[in-house]
């Protein structure tokens, strides 16, 4: 016996709000690690990602604040380099999902992903700076097989 199709009430259908921000996505890799990075350009306000509120200038890695995921001053200096070299510190909200590898590989993949996403924001302005600093080059060194 065929089932009756479910009919939704007109009141229950919600219209989705138009995006008030733009995103730039990129993938960064280092050793065995892969980082999917999103840069959010927020004119004002914030973005909600799985119960986490992300404001302008904040970074989240695997749903944790970046300071908790990559602890220490050395790590902070490394992942802030693409923003410092392009003078874009605090202009974007960043979220990343990183899988595989160890801490050093994940940090390198994160920096590579941020740099590739920044390149998509303004290619003519940021690409020469990031290329000169070496952030756009994928470090292809991997563990040698036995």
Uncertain spans, ≥5 residues at pLDDT below 50?
Answer: 9-18
Strand line-up across the major sheet: 1-2-7-5-6
CATH topology (level 3) name: Ribosomal Protein S5, domain 2
How does the major sheet shape up? 5 strands, mixed
By CATH reckoning, the class would read Alpha Beta
Roughly what is the average pLDDT, rounded to an integer? Answer: 87
Overall number of strands: 7
Count helical runs: 4
Give the SSE string.
Answer: EEEEEEHHEHH
Q: Please tell me the total number of domains.
A: 1
Evaluate the radius of gyration. 19 Å
Given the C-alpha coordinates, what overall shape results? globular
CATH architecture classification name: 2-Layer Sandwich
Amino-to-carboxy terminus distance = 62 Å
Q: Tell me the fraction of residues in β-strands, as a range.
A: 25-35%
- Percentage of helical residues? 25-40%
Alpha-beta content class: alpha+beta
């Amino acid at each position: 016996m065929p089932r009756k199709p479910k009919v939704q009430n007109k009141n229950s259908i919600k219209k989705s709000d138009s995006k008030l921000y733009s995103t730039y996505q990129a993938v960064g890799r280092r050793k065995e690690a892969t980082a999917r990075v999103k840069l959010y350009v927020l004119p004002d306000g914030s973005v909600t990602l799985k119960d986490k509120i992300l404001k302008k200038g904040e970074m989240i890695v695997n749903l944790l604040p970046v300071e908790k995921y990559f602890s220490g001053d050395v790590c902070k200096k490394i992942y802030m380099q693409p923003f410092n070299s392009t003078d874009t510190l605090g202009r974007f909200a960043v979220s990343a999902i990183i899988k595989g590898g160890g801490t050093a590989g994940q940090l390198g993949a994160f920096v590579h992903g941020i740099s590739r996403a920044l390149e998509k924001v303004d290619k003519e302005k940021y690409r020469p700076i990031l290329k000169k600093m070496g952030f756009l080059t994928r470090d292809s060194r991997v563990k040698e097989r036995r």
